[in-house]
Amino acid sequence: MKHHKWLDVLLLSSICMLTAFIGMFIFISGDSKYQASTVSASSPPEGAHENTTKVEMEEKGKTPTLSVVEVPSDFDGIRLFNETPNNSTPPYSIMYPTTKYEKINKEITKYIETSKQQYLSAAEQKKKENPYLKSNLKIQVKISKYKQAYYSIIFTKQLELEGKNIEESFNTVVFNVKTGNRIFPRILFNQDVSNLEKLSKYVRQKMLEQKGYKKNINLSKWNHASYPYWERYDRFAIENDSLVLYYNKGEFSNKSIGSPSLSIPLTFINPILAAEFQTETKSEITILTSDQKGNVSKRVALTFDDGPHKKITNQILNTLDKYHAKATFFMVGERVEGNASVVKDVLARGHEIGNHTWDHARLTKLTSKSVLSKVSSTNNIIYKVTGHYPSVFRPPYGAKNKQVTDLINMPVVLWTIDTLDWKYRDSSKLLPMVQKNIKNNDIILMHDIHQSTADGLESVLNYLQKQGYECVTVSEILASQK
Ligand code: NI
Fold this sequence. Notes:
By secondary structure, the chain is of the alpha/beta class. About 35% of the residues lie in helices and about 25% in strands. The chain has an eight-stranded mixed beta sheet, covered by helices on one side. Strands 12, 13, 14, 15, 16, 17 and 18 form a seven-stranded parallel beta sheet that branches. Strands 9-10-11 form a three-stranded antiparallel beta sheet.
């Protein structure tokens, strides 16, 4: 058969077109956003996990090029990577590990990605304000092993956005390398809150004993950070047979002392650890030898009735913030709309709102119908202003009977200490009333319509803090008494 030249040309151009089409198709439909090229190191050192791999990733569009370098890891089952941008600002350097467990990796990725994205957008914002400001993000990883089974991964994050001011914060992931299960404080301390309370008491005191700490620690913030709630002990690691608690720079202390941490030999806390975490080393010193009726878990609820009041409630909110204290405000419905901004502020600043009827009526003298109307109208106006219904109810004058409480579909709360602030109207008389009666789980009655109450509050908070009380909402006290 005769061969035509034009047929060759047609065939050749068809092949070219097809190739181009296939190429484009692969390019468009590729499910990875990244085009990755892997470059193996020329001479891999011994041990497969010590291979150094350089992966360059380029995201389509304007996202900066980054490079990920594997760095040697001394821990079986853990690979370590370091990520840096190749050519762009803002600069960062992020180290992160991967494990063979997807669940653990997900947790790590979530933390790393959130940190990175927050940094990049904050840095971009800062750059708009001042193009000469330096910014940087550095995340480092430390790993330690306990009993061949428990790995603690400690992330140290250094964030620089303001030029000279470097923020330092921590995150930890502790897991069982044999099962892939994460270890939380709850598991470490055998699901027993009284164990956590013992630890908290010890930690509270020990931190203050570190050199130079006492005068640099904000006591109310420290009491808050060390309060025996499980989640406040989430940043921990087991290193060199010690439990190490990590705190962020400035979390409760003057930034001049850096990032506080506390290391407690496991032998000290053996009796409160779950069996699988106990050490074989015996020690006579345990934190249990100290007085067990500590002042750790003391709490009180401050309550303010008859407001809101534009000026006085606001002053009280500022004082509460200063002492890291939470409170409950029992509001009178008819005052809510005219003081909408302070009402919203109460919730926004972490306090609780209670219902105190529409017009401070004595409910025991009313028909069921008007009791319901005075309560529900107040619920509705608070909802209208804040988007949340109040969570608790207090009858004016403490006047209640079965008829009243049966009608009300929320916890009815009275008080255990009456400061009589409405009677004295004297700021210097507030503290003595609290002082002579105070005990754990007390509910203290005050009123945010008297200037004297707002003025006397600071001395009360100062006293409560020194006595180791945490000020919480009424609902938190109720929950603990169930
Ligand atoms: Ni009242």
